[in-house]
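Below is a filled-in request sheet from our internal design queue. Each sheet records the structural input a requester submitted and the sequence that came back. We keep these sheets so that new team members can see what a complete request looks like end to end.

REQUESTER: design group, bay 2
PRIORITY: normal
MODE: inverse folding
CHAIN LENGTH: 175
BACKBONE (tokenized):
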């Protein structure tokens, strides 16, 4: 029994003193791998958007070169045809959702958000769409992840690599 105890203690003392061996897998990642991976993600996202639009056939969307799709479903009643320009301050109300309908964000009732067009921490897709709207317009935006929150999401309510559906109302513009 005494011998057993000595062997056990010796084993514990010698095994605890060694540094763990870190195993680092070899990764052979190239520019071509990244390009292929991004192409696959874009194709999958495009398929998801097409499936979504199959359920929303009444949306007469326009697709831009960036991949943004938008549908102005209510035109403003304001006499001006002025669209926001870079540097203008846009005043908007919005609801941000995922393709599956999960609501992520919305402006509070009777409140709006302001942002400087082309100079703010707001999705590139929203920046692009706002410049296509006039005061009083309401639009549905389909914002692919590469012009939304991308690979990391917003680290809060929007998961990585998610297409956003944004219902936006352009209330006003400060020049």
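RETURNED SEQUENCE:
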């Amino acid at each position: 029994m005494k011998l057993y105890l000595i062997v056990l203690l010796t084993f514990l003392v010698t095994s605890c003193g060694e540094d763990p061996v870190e195993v680092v897998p070899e990764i052979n990642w190239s520019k071509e791998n990244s390009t292929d991976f991004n192409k696959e993600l874009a194709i999958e996202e495009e398929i998801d958007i097409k499936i979504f639009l199959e359920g929303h056939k009444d949306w007469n969307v326009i697709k831009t070169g960036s991949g943004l799709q938008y549908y102005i479903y209510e035109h403003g009643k304001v006499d001006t045809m002025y669209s926001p320009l870079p540097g203008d301050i846009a005043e908007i109300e919005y609801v941000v959702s995922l393709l599956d309908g999960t609501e992520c964000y919305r402006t509070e009732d009777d409140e709006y958000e302001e942002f400087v067009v082309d100079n703010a921490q707001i999705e590139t897709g929203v920046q692009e769409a706002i410049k296509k709207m006039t005061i009083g317009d309401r639009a549905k935006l389909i914002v692919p992840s590469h012009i939304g929150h991308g690979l990391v999401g917003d680290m809060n309510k929007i998961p990585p690599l998610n297409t956003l559906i944004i219902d936006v109302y352009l209330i006003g513009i400060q020049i």
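SHEET NOTES:
- The radius of gyration is 26 Å.
- The mean pLDDT is 88.
FILED BY: M.R.
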